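Quick one: co-fold with adenosine-5'-triphosphate.
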Amino acid sequence: MNKKEWKEEQERVDFVLSEVIVREHDLKEKLGDVKTDVINIRKNFWEDVTVNLDNAEEAAETFASIKQQAELMSESERRHKHDIKQLNNLHKLKHSPYFGRIDFLENGESNSESIYIGTSSFVDQTGMEFYVYDWRAPISSLYYDYGVGAGQYDTPMGTIAGDIKVKKQFIIKNGKIQHMFHTGITIGDELLQEVLGNQSNSEMKNIVATIQKEQNQIIRNEKGRLLIVQGVAGSGKTSAALQRVAYLLYRYRDTLSADEIVLFSPNPLFTSYISTVLPELGEENMQQTTFQSYLQHRLGSNWRLEDQFDQMEYVLHRKEDPQYAARIEGIKVKSSIQFINYIDHLIDSLSSSGMIFKDIIFREDTLFSKAKIEKYFYRIDRTIPIPNRLHIVSEQLLKEVRAFELNEQKQEWVDREIELLDIEVLTKVHNKVEKEKQKESDVFYQYEREQELLRALVVKRKLKRVRDSISQFRFLDVTSIYLNLFKKELNEFMTHWPEICSTTVEQIKEKFFLYEDVTPYLYLKGKLEGFQINTLIKHVFIDEAQDYSPFQFAFIRQMFPRAKWTVLGDFNQSIYAHSNTSSFLTLETLFLSSEIIKYDLKQSYRSTSQIIEFAKHIVQASIEPFNRNGEKPKVIKVKDKKDLILALSRRIKIKLESYGTVAVICKTKAESETLFNALHKELDVRLITKDSAGFDSGVLIIPSYLAKGVEFDAVIIPNVSSSIYANKNESKLLYTICTRAMHSLELLYHDTVSPLLLNCPSTSFEKQIE
Ligand SMILES: Nc1ncnc2c1ncn2[C@@H]1O[C@H](COP(=O)(O)OP(=O)(O)OP(=O)(O)O)[C@@H](O)[C@H]1O
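Sure, here it is.
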């Protein structure tokens, strides 16, 4: 790139920055005025409305005047918020106004236009000339989709085609161009090399300057209702998801807000890791939750619930338990499509018989027997869906409660309850009757009337629980219906069904749910009582989707019936016992095939090509590594188990000389705790647990399943001996751990190395003895 070109580009940067400074100054002044406006409107709110409630007409006028004033206030507040957002965007532009340029000659035009692309738009005072285009603007997609030559982009008015004459990339820091390249379709290997070569961070970074073509298609897709992205480790699935949220918020800014989008993430650590990306792009964060907290919320506080990490610990760590094989089979069965069908079949049959109800008790007597409720239920037309039939039953019961209530007011127990009433209640009733008495002037009437009101009040209060439980269908015994599933033979070929049944019944009777039971139970409950649907959510994002069972998908689908879905996962990283490829297939059955769009990302960006060349053989994955070089992974043999700690400590110290974040990724919580206890006196290490809400740089000791979705400069796997990673079905776990490493990967073992590494060619790693 010649000096002249560089000089011209720097002059343009200087010019844009000078305009940014002017705009910033104007905006700050305006912001001051708007703020004063907002404060004044708030202060003078009641002075500026005339309150007169003398008659209906005056009251209506008062109401209109309050409404007008409130609208004025919310409009000023909205303007204030908007201006603050703009000011924030200007701050960012001042540092680095843009990262790309294309010169585009639209078909039929004689001059090409230079389009500069940055994180937000910046337009001249007239609003006619774009100094910078937002990366999400329709024209900006040219930058991500094409190299120099023919190109086209879609706009709401149709497709615009033309010729890209120039395509350049910039790195601008503090207003100075640091690098400038002419590039092809793959947005600058040079820039990607630089970005990916940086050290990791406890916060994920946005990728808008280097979005790749296949990622851009995911980010901007607007067609399907279900977008499924299968992508290899480090292919940018999470990044694409987050930039997609930013894109949707921009594209539908008049109709979509951040709280109408929900993202299900694998754990709280991941939630905190990704939480800075959207604010960095000038957008608010979407709602974020884990499926676990969602389940807990739905189940209510009466139940204890095992979480998915405890289930995982059991699966990884309790192989000696005599019930182990049965539990594993139970987890698989209860997450399977076969079990959904089994439950659906049961639900169908419940239409004509088999519903289990509970008596409704009032003051220790049966108010409505389960037999009576059952009779009411089954006399309703069978073609009516079960939740609607329950609703009809509940209406009938409530009607009868009303009749019962009137009768009950005459009972003796009511007198005793009246005596126990608070003085405030008695006074209130007394005053009420006193007011009425002025019209009647009858002392006898007053006593009778007070008693009448107090009786009504006492009975109403006592019946409140009954009414609530009727309206909430608490007369339905979902737990017993669920447990009935475990009385029948599900599959004659299943080895452990009797044990699965007895454990399930035992646990649930103790009011404890194993993780694998919660979703089927809630699914059954929802199907019977009607799901508490959320119609506000317009987009559901599910990251690490390979870890969801078909049941969990079916359940989430019921919860958000109106939402569009973006689901991202990698079959090779399915680490849970229930995981199988059929999850995605089930998900697809929940949508019409015309509504589904699928993408397959093969290129990995996170790790050096040496790490990928080694790790891919653990699961025989087909991955294209990004061309970034580093050291080969090291497989290090130590003398014995005792020496492992010493060697680990040495390796950590060496890694800390070059890297900011070194993660020691263990298989289980117990292994992590043991290492932490052995190391923390000598080294500054941090133990990550399922409740950790974030991490800083330094040395982290972390169990495998909590490292999902995150990345570290250097990863050390402290023990890949054959005694630890022995089973074939743990290869995905080992692969997932290895692919958390960006620049350096080391694996330690004693005695013999895990058979899971036997497929890695000897040329793909370095052997070392410590
Ligand atoms: N186009 C890109 N430009 C720059 N960096 C990128 C790009 N795509 C991905 N990356 C980087 O690659 C790393 C992996 O990305 P991300 O975590 O989104 O991948 P993933 O597919 O969700 O990974 P995994 O499934 O292994 O958790 C991140 O550091 C991300 O910033």
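If it helps, Residues 192, 195-196, 205, 207, 210-212, 215, 231, 233-239, 570, 573, 605-606, 709, 711, 739 surround adenosine-5'-triphosphate (CB under 6 Å).
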